Amino acid sequence: MRCAAPTLSSCRYRPVHSTWARRGTSSIEEFLEGFDYPLVAHLRQTQVYVYCARDGLSVFDLPRSRGEQDWEQWRPLTRWLARQAAVKND
Predict the structure, then answer these.
(1) What tens digit of pLDDT does each residue of 11-51 get?
(2) Which side of the chain, N or C, has fewer Cβ within a 10 Å radius?
(3) What pLDDT was estimated at residue 12?
(4) Could you please report the per-residue DSSP string of 11-30?
(5) How many CB atoms lie within 10 A of CB 70?
(6) Distance of alpha carbon 25 from its chain centroid, rounded?
(7) Treating both helix axes as pointing N-terminal to C-terminal, what angle do 48-55 and 64-89 enclose, rounded to 10 degrees?
(8) How far is 24 from 84, CA to CA, in rounded Å?
(9) CA–CA dist 14, 16 (Å, integer)
(10) CA–CA distance, 10 with 2 (Å, rounded to integer)
C-alpha cells in the first residue's frame, strides 16, 4: 500500500496498547496478523515517554545517555516514514 504522505491520518497503521505488551510478544503478533496493516516497529514500555510528555520533549530531545536505547527502537519507524515520504515525492 502506498500512502499519500507519512501521517497517521493518511497511512494505515496499527498501534498496540500497553495491555497487549504484558501478554507476551507472540500473542501480540498473533493478534495483529488479523489486520491488514504493517507492523513497523516494536517500542518498549518505559517511563521515558511519561517524563518527556511532562516536560514537553520528545524522546529525540533527550541526551544520548537517556535516549539512545529508545532511538534505536524508533529507527525502523523513522526509516519507514522516510520511505513513505520518498514515494510521495516520486
Answers:
(1) 454 555 545 455 555 677 788 888 888 888 888 889 999 99
(2) C
(3) 52
(4) S------HHHHTT-HHHHHH
(5) 19
(6) 15
(7) 80
(8) 30
(9) 6
(10) 10
Which contacts of 44-50 are long-range, i.e. CB under 8 A and separated by 24 or more positions? 44/69, 44/70, 44/73, 45/18, 45/21, 46/70
What is the reported pTM?
Answer: 0.59
Residue 55 is placed in which grid cell?
516536560
3-state secondary structure at position 65: helix
From the CA atom positions of the chain, what is the Rg in Å?
A: 15
Q: How is residue 66 written as a grid cell? A: 537517556
How far is the C-alpha of 9 from the C-alpha of 4, rounded, in Å? 10
Q: Pull the grid cell for residue 51.
A: 517524563
Are 44 and 74 within 8 A, CB to CB?
no
